[in-house]
Design a protein that fits this description.
By secondary structure, the chain is α+β, with helices and mostly antiparallel strands. It is built from 13 helices and 39 strands. The protein is globular, with a radius of gyration of 27 Å.
């Protein structure tokens, strides 16, 4: 709900549990006055204090009033070069070379429904949304800035984006354009980020917000394995179920910067948006630039409430479901069994073993195209290697259909090998700086997806493959960071646009694919979890969570991921042991429990499985299908963190009639203590049957807990299915 007080020029945004407020003051500076638990619509600018602070300058409009300074006021969208020395939200260069930006309130509009962004992913919806647009102007520079706010009341979600317009007669260079700025007065915060590396993504890191600037970023051309474009601020005592916390996520898949600053007055500022590193966008007269959308979430009751609200909003108002509510098939991928060295008969052998176990989709991974037997050749040549697959993909799809299975394929459209027909024909299509040798990674170069003719060629080649057979699933991979970022299609003065234009190009092809194949399931991937962000989830309902399939490492990866992203988005498979990444041997039961808190599938040679393993796999697939709605769409509760002797989590149906508790022990030890696990989210008055046997009241299970059996070996697991009776 949006409330406007035209007299005092106060704008108040209400969600079910939170309130957000800003105000245009007497000098037309747009001040941020409040974001927190839901309250009334009173003008909260009375909380802002004014005092003369040394070295905090005063705008000319304030005259001799030394207490009024942009350097000390909480601003809705921070400026630069005119008195605010904190993190700036925007910076543009005028024709005279000056870089100052002085934005003042110039009007507003309230609109029903949700705004949309051309060429960019964004949350979507209908009448459940409201939109507020606040117009700011820099009169001297003749630049206007439009701040967009989308309010999804039931899910406590506020989205933000920014549009910059050059109203002048000369070109302006936009050098920084954050998607959000959030100021807090007098709060003592922790800053939480989700960091790691390839095969160990999105580990939670929590630090006290100290004086100065703390930040995470990516300059790799993608959101990266190393830092995720979702961050949190929270009170020092905040935990899963108590105290105030804020989450901010960028709906974008390229270079980003998330920065938090604690100031001289112990105020705090958070900015999030496109990384200004190597970013410079030329705005010709009349032209505009739209920054990516950011999503804001406030929880008065800890991290768990915030995650559950975010999960609902992402599932219902960001992800497009190509299957229209139907269960996606349980899949098997042969990569860890064969890599690129396979024959059609080997693939069919795995498929024959998989079909009786309840597995419905066979994914042909890297190696089916061009002259591709390893990672040094073939990328860019999107035609079937009939030496490996006689008769092409259509013949394989027909054989799979006889087994009751459908076909999926792996692609990596953004890359090219120098040993390929595409590169030999068009070496200038790869990113590269004139006069410098190209930098290789994984024997790959990056195609310049900022160029439409390159995108068209790649898409038409892949489309021909997709039209050649009954293909129901595509895994879109990207296996290197961007280097040598220079486009032959842009002049020297516009090379600062290439990183962003590249991301827009990726979105363009994904959108075309989504429109042309509306019922095809597309899974995102970038060497695993290197591009796990809300931007990709708009186009791909699920993303391969990590190339690391080790169940114990996956506990941490999926734990960190769960703070923002729903279970239904996490690509997770059961793989063989000893694990290819860690060498660890984990029970098949445990591997199934962990993968089941994701999209669930298998990444192993099922033709080599024992009869006992096949029976267990059949049981796992049947259990997952039976409880799919609960697992994928239930409310998610983290019952423990990663510091204890076991890791536990829980999914609860929206009506609280069902729950599934999953637990994985660490290494076993002698004389382990007796323990009980306290559950969450149940109906206190309901009587629950646990695993079809004992019954306990919901309040008892939440307050006293459930006794845990003693593990009999390393990395044992446990699942409890609860049903109200």
């Amino acid at each position: 709900m949006i409330e406007l007080d035209r007299g005092s020029r106060v704008f108040t945004l209400h969600t079910r549990n939170t309130t957000y407020q800003m105000k245009a003051d007497n000098y037309n500076v747009l001040l941020h006055t409040y974001y927190g638990p839901r309250i009334g619509s009173d003008d909260l600018s009375y909380l802002i204090q004014y005092a003369d602070r040394g070295f905090s300058p005063n705008p000319s409009q304030a005259g001799e009033d030394r207490t009024y300074s942009l350097d000390t006021l909480p601003q809705e969208y921070s400026t630069c070069g005119v008195g605010d020395f904190r993190l700036s939200s925007i910076e543009f260069e005028r024709p005279d070379g000056s870089l100052a930006a002085d934005l003042r309130y110039a009007g507003h509009e309230r609109r029903p429904g949700k705004y949309a962004l051309e060429g960019l992913p964004a949350f979507w919806g209908g009448d459940e949304w409201e939109t507020l647009v606040v117009f700011l102007e820099d009169a001297a520079a003749q630049v206007s800035v439009e701040l967009y706010y989308g309010v999804l009341e039931n899910y406590d979600l506020i989205t933000r984006c920014v549009r910059v317009v050059n109203r002048g007669t000369q070109a302006v260079k936009l050098r920084r354009c954050a998607s959000l700025c959030l100021d807090f007065q007098g709060e003592d915060f922790d800053f939480i980020t989700f960091d790691g590396c390839h095969t160990l993504e999105r580990g939670l890191n929590r630090t006290h917000l100290r004086p100065g600037v703390q930040s995470v970023e990516s300059v790799r051309g993608m959101s990266s394995h190393h830092h995720n474009p979702f961050v949190m601020l929270c009170h020092r005592d905040a935990g899963e179920d108590h105290s105030l916390c804020y989450g901010a996520a960028l709906v974008y898949s390229g270079n980003f910067l998330a920065a938090a600053e604690r100031t001289q007055l112990e105020h705090n500022r958070l900015t999030l948006g496109i990384n200004p590193w190597h970013f410079c966008w030329t705005l010709e007269p009349g032209a505009s630039f739209t920054a990516p959308e950011a999503a804001l979430m406030c929880s008065p009751n800890g991290f768990g409430q915030m995650s559950r609200q975010l999960h609902r909003a992402v599932r219902e108002n960001l992800i497009h479901d190509p299957l229209q509510g139907q269960q996606p098939p349980v899949l098997v991928n042969h990569w860890e069994a064969t890599e690129a060295h396979f024959t059609q008969e080997k693939l069919l052998g795995i498929a024959r073993a998989a079909a009786p176990l309840g597995i419905e989709l066979f994914v042909v991974d890297d190696g089916w195209f061009g002259k591709r037997d390893d990672d040094t050749s073939g990328l860019g040549d999107w035609f079937v290697n009939e030496r490996k697959l006689p008769g092409g993909l259509n013949a394989l799809a027909s054989r799979l259909k006889e087994l009751g299975m459908s076909l999926g394929i792996w692609i990596e459209p953004e890359m090219v090998n120098e040993d390929s027909e595409l590169y030999r024909a068009h070496p200038d299509w790869a990113l590269g700086i004139p006069g410098r040798p190209r930098t290789r990674s994984r024997s790959q170069l990056v195609l310049d997806f900022s160029r439409e003719e390159i995108r068209n060629h790649v898409y038409h080649a892949i489309k021909a493959v997709l039209d050649s057979a009954d293909i129901s699933y595509v895994k879109w991979d990207m296996n290197r960071s961007l280097t040598d970022v220079y486009s032959a299609a842009l002049p020297a003065g516009r090379q600062g646009e290439v990183f962003h234009r590249y991301v827009l190009g990726v979105y363009d092809i994904l959108e075309r694919m989504r429109q042309d194949y509306p019922h095809m399931l597309i899974e995102g991937c970038a060497g695993g979890g290197g591009r796990f962000d809300l931007g990709m989830l708009y186009y791909t309902p699920q993303i391969w969570c990590s190339d690391n399939t080790d169940a114990i490492d996956r506990l941490g990866i999926q734990y960190g991921t769960s703070f923002c992203y729903p279970v239904s988005s996490m690509g997770a498979h059961v793989s063989a042991v000893p694990n290819a990444q860690t060498g660890r041997a984990t029970p098949l039961e445990t591997r199934g429990v962990v993968a089941m808190s994701g999209t669930f599938g298998y990444e192993m040679d099922l033709s080599a499985a024992t009869q006992a393993e096949k029976r267990l796999i059949q049981e796992q697939t049947a259990f997952f299908k039976e409880h799919y709605e609960l697992i994928q769409r239930g409310d998610y509760y983290r019952l423990t963190d990663l510091s204890g002797p076991f890791t536990a989590w829980e999914q609860v149906s929206p009506d609280r009639r069902e729950a599934l508790v999953s637990l994985v022990y660490g290494p076993n030890r002698a004389a382990s203590p007796f323990r009980a696990l306290r559950l969450k989210g149940l109906d206190p008055k309901a009587l629950y049957q646990v695993n079809g046997r004992e019954t306990r009241r919901g309040d008892v299970l939440m307050a006293a807990g459930w006794p845990l059996p003693m593990p009999t070996g390393d990395y044992q697991s446990l699942q409890l299915y609860l049903q109200a009776v």
